[in-house]
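Lay summary. Proteins are chains of building blocks that fold into shapes, and those shapes determine what they do. In this project we predict the shape from the chain. Here is one chain we studied, written as its sequence of building blocks.
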Amino acid sequence: MITYEFDEGSLSRLNRKLVKIGNDAPKALKNAINKTARKTRTDLKKGARAEYTSAKAGPIGSGMTMQIASNANLQAKIFIKGRPMLVNTGFRATTPKRGAKVGVKGGLRELIGPSGIRGFGGDGGIVLQRKTAARRPLRAAVGPSVPNMMRPEGPVYQKVEPEIQSNLRKEVEAQVDRILKS
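And here is the predicted shape, written in a compact code that computers can read:
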């Protein structure tokens, strides 16, 4: 959870502006929080794609939903859920019949290992791996899940968190100024 606190100087300046707009203060804060939450969701998606070699935003974005703030409840929530992604759907992979490889970068290397995923191509471009030296059983190679990519101690969240703080400050100022001008 991300919490944000204003320092004394900006809080007193903001408080003076909020007194001027009166009943529109919750509306201004709600709009600022929702706009910041939408930008945060987009930044998390982009950060995950860059950090984990993901080729497509679909598998990442489909697991992220948002509960927006209202005038009565001034907090927005981003919910992240999902199962481990099959390597062929979410990551850059070459899947010939022999010698399939998956590109490994940054955070994916941390979760899978430095050598990456090796296997062979199956039907539909799935990367298969043998569990033993025998011909069977086979398992489909999977990467990390979306919640695992976005964990608070992970690299994606650490890069995005400072931007969230500055975006919220800018949005609150912009929304208050917008209401004062109208």
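What the prediction tells us: DSSP finds seven helices and seven strands in the chain.
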